Batch of 2 targets.
Target 1
Amino acid sequence: MAGGGDAAGATDRRWGLENGSRHRGNALTGARILFSSIRKVYRRDVALSSFSLAIEAGEFVTLLGPSGSGKTTALNILAGFTAASGGTLGVDGKSILDLPPEKREIGMVFQGYSLFPHMTVAQNVAFPLALRRVAKSEIARRVGEALEMVRLGSFGARMPNELSGGQRQRVAFARAVVFRPRVLLMDEPLGALDLKLREAMQLEIKRYHAELGCTVIFVTHDQGEALALSDRIAVMTDGEIAQVGTPAEIYDRPDSQYVAEFVGRINVFPGQRRPGNRIEIPDLGLTAALPDTVAGAAAETVNMCVRPEDVEIVGPADASGMLACDATVEEAYFLGDTVSYSVALAAGRRITVEHQRRASTPIMPAGSRLRLGIRMSSAHYFPAV
Amino acid sequence: MTTIREAGSSRMLHLGFALILLFLLVPLLVIIPMSFSETRYLAFPPVGFSLKWYGAFFQNPRWIGALGWSVGVAICAALVAVPAGVCAALYLRHRSGAVVNVVLGALLGAQIVPTIILALGIRLVTAPFTGSLPVVVVTLAHATLALPFVVATVLPVLNKLDVSVEKAARMCGATPVQAFRHITIPAIRPALVGAFVFSFFVSFDELMIALFTFQTIETLPVRIWGEVRQELTPVIAAATSMLIAATTAAVIVGQAHIVRASSRLADK
């Protein structure tokens, strides 16, 4: 019943951590990883300051952040290429900080494919097994299986420079998992591919993860990729984790303006806190009640942030219960399934409105006047910094 | 107007290039025909056609001995120069241009100092010694002369090899030594072959140091030099012609390997 177990595992994963433990009955499962207060200090820069993250067995966790946010440092410390300045790092409860990379039994896929140029595809994939002195016949069988999984079964005799970018990345993937590591690291593995191929490879990676059940740590600066692939995302900035959560949590309930702006797009309305837990928003020409959850009375200035798709285009009458405002279309960007409008509010601020459309939906030309409504529940409030 | 002027200057450039090439090639074009002459002296234009001077070369133990010493010393020099050069290239890998230039400049020092001064110095130091020491000294001196060629050949290829390739080997379970042996070295092997061939011929062609250092041993260039001073027979032309042929073949083979080394890593 291996197939049934797999399918159940895949369903489990789609629901993320909320579903509790993900039990996988068949093959080897992934390992738990625990970063506690890991630091990395270079002579003058702090690359990673107190990085703590618990990753469940079999989980797909993405470290998302711009370059210099520390995500690659964290990955290199886990891989063993960078020594931590402090903290502990355990895989299934055992500290691995003193082990060299080759003793950690972790698979890794690099951005630049990093195939061995003098070896055939099959030799590349066989290398980890040959190092482990696996019997020849067993090597042949497992290399065949791994290449079959990445749909390159008939490419074993090719040289790496005879393959396309997507094929090379799939070989790199097969090589990284052929020795059945319980942890797989991916460092911007799709960065070198073009958009269409990237989307196809995202689906492939999801499939590999479902089949293998190993714990995956994926590093990227591409928020779309992170949202599409991950069980959980750790958004990083300046060597720290800004927020950890499921893709939906990160997108719908960002903890900070940084996360809100880095993952997806968001409109920012500066506001002033007023007595009675109210906020005055000059751009909208109104004062609204702040949710009780927005604490920090000391903060005089509070930003209201609203995603472009949460700004609705409403009729004159049906804006009840919403924050409403008049606006003029400045530019319309046609994106097929949506139209992205750049609109100017009456008070002058320019915001983005994303409007879902169908074939019958007309596009409003520049200069069109419209009324916008924002549901209070879809607004996020962050203290201004 | 400009196009005509440009065409003219380009023609001048071609002409100049052709003259330089001719100047370089004339001695070769004279020597090779002379080696086939039937006369007992060096004659140009050659008289008749004969391979007897090639035969004379291979029947004379002094020539064969000289060839043997040359090949032996050259192989040893290359065997020293290539590993040493690879070490230097590994050190210079991914370092800033300034560091690379300083080190390469220092390595080129031995090339820039007039060889006769180098040879004189070596002679003065080794004069009291006999036996195998001069051979070791000449081998090391030749390796030193070849070193910058090795570094210049290996370094660009090494820089082209993405470090993540070696990191990938480590993640596959290879120790640093295994990664170097099974991945780095094979990945740059064509460049190593090219470097070996160039090193071999730097040593094989070298006259001055061998002439000054060896007292009884003759290498091929030393033998040619001695022959030129005594009797100008076409054997010299035959020996020289073979030297030219071997060097040309080596340059082609070496260059082909270097090109292959780069192209294999080009599309990473």
Target 2
Amino acid sequence: MSQAKTLFEKVWEQHIVAEPAGEPTILYIDLQLVHEVTSPQAFEGLRLAGRRVARADRTLATVDHNVPTDKDRIHIKDPIAAKQIEALRKNCAEFGVELFDVNSVDQGIVHMIGPELGATKPGMTIVCGDSHTSTHGAFGALAFGIGTSEVEHVLATQTLPQSRPKTFRIAVEGELPHGVTAKDIVLGIIGRIGTDGATGYAIEFAGSAIRALSMEGRMTICNMSIEAGARAGMIAPDETTFAYLEGRRFAPKDADWERAKQEWRKLPTDEGAAFDRELLIPAHELTPYVTWGTSPGMVVGVTDVVPDPSLGETEADRNGLARALEYMDLRAGTPIEEITIDRVFIGSCTNARIEDLRAAAKVLAGYQVHANVRGMVVPGSQQVKAQAEREGLDHVFREAGFDWREPGCSMCLGMNPDILQPGERCASTSNRNFEGRQGKGGRTHLVSPAMAAAAAVMGRFTDIRTWQYRTASREAEVLA
Amino acid sequence: MQAFTTLTSIVTPLELSNVDTDQIIPKQFLKRIERTGYEDYLFFDWRQDPGFVLNNPAYGGSHILVAGKNFGCGSSREHAAWALEQYGFRCVIAPSFADIFYSNAGKNGILAITLSEAEVERLLLQAKTADGYRLTVSLESNTIEDESGFATSFQIDPFRRDCLLQGLDDIGLTLRHAALLSAYEQKHDTENWLLARA
């Protein structure tokens, strides 16, 4: 009998091109996703060395980080952003890479469109010059973010030298409590193991609570595995995965589809396979979470209080905690539900999929955004936006007082005009609460889409588990 | 890339854990399409504070940065490594580094050294309190020494060490395996459920 293997080991071993003695493994890359921000210097490197893109058919590009999210976004007012997007257009044309440009019906955040197009598939190796590439691991792919030198390396060779990460299984077992979402699972995990808790590891998320999630929820969890420091996050493919992929543009068809499923069914971790590390989290211990500080690990339950910074282990840790409280303008001991907010951002590659918008709209139906709050929804992709509009979700958001915008990364990182003003406090469905992430001096609290919507109505954080749902408008009834 | 052999320099203490790449190089500078010219943008927002360590002339001309654990976490932006290197930092010492930053640093001739929490705390204290505190970092002998008797050795992957010592870039190294790659691709491309497009 052959040795029991993990999902990670199977995918890794199927992509070994060479294992030179004393050097990293040369790993084959099935798909590289490209966006405007981390690619210009890579294409320039190819040009200077007289190299070509080795496999344009394994490369897809889109514009997401810089694009404005207003209606008139074809005309970018920021000249430096416009130049960077123009550079991507020229590079894609020169090197033969397919680009899903701003006017494409398939444009969107790079980690949204890979799955939507069916380009992301189980068993693949996928890279992108963006740390949230871990998202694609939800399909049982080995997917990770890389730097620009590595982008150039993959463009030139379709391979990457990689040292093999260790394996870490995090099992979430049991039924999720009411009001606890995929976002809360991953925030809860990061809160437990820390932002460097999985450094050097490829995580496999497993257990009944993970199996029960939709692909959207699985993507949310894998997306933020980088926030625990992991090289990658993976979830074994199953019937949920196949149902999501079937019929998508780049998914295999007919006999190829049946053959593909046969191969994909061999990928899940074998019974008895060993992991370097394991963690079990009972689902009933999880709660709706809110980050209070400037690192995703600075997180507590919504009914908790802001913690005491003197609990840090080292001077550097205590400095970090104290600095975070000062930056966030919070005092230890303050109940989370007493923190008032100015802005709400529903968007990003973490939580801007159709289910996320449905969850937020369900909370908002029949309510108005609080007078002190400005809310914006940025669907993650054109496909999500179109789907949401077919379902009437845009009306629910607009009736509640939210701004309904065009797809892109937007205020997740504020590279486009969507930013917080200094001192503004935001409930955000994105992935990072770093200082200045959403705008210089801006204060970010990470939450689930439902928690963000509820905070928008109340003007402060509130426990979604006690929310009184309404279905006041005709559109909202469609949701029920 | 520039080779790294031995370096002696004043040490800059950055006594914070979880320094993320958004702080090392804020987003507004990621719109540039050039690979150079990032030195003035290193820690741009933090440098607005006159008390920030990079604004202290005592650390002027320093090539060694010492920081808390999980240095370089967050965004994959290689601009963080470019900014550090172009500012003059050739060596960063911390109890741990985020994976992507660690890789980016190596590809830009920056030696990222992992030491124990206790050793890093000692170096931070010395750099904060001892005037002109200097370290000599030798990649040839995998050692770090100061001028008052402190000496330690560090671990580094032998391949990464070789690349840094010789200033080797990766693409040329990988292309030594072109025949294996070609054979792999021929077989792999027939497994069409793994094609990016089907």
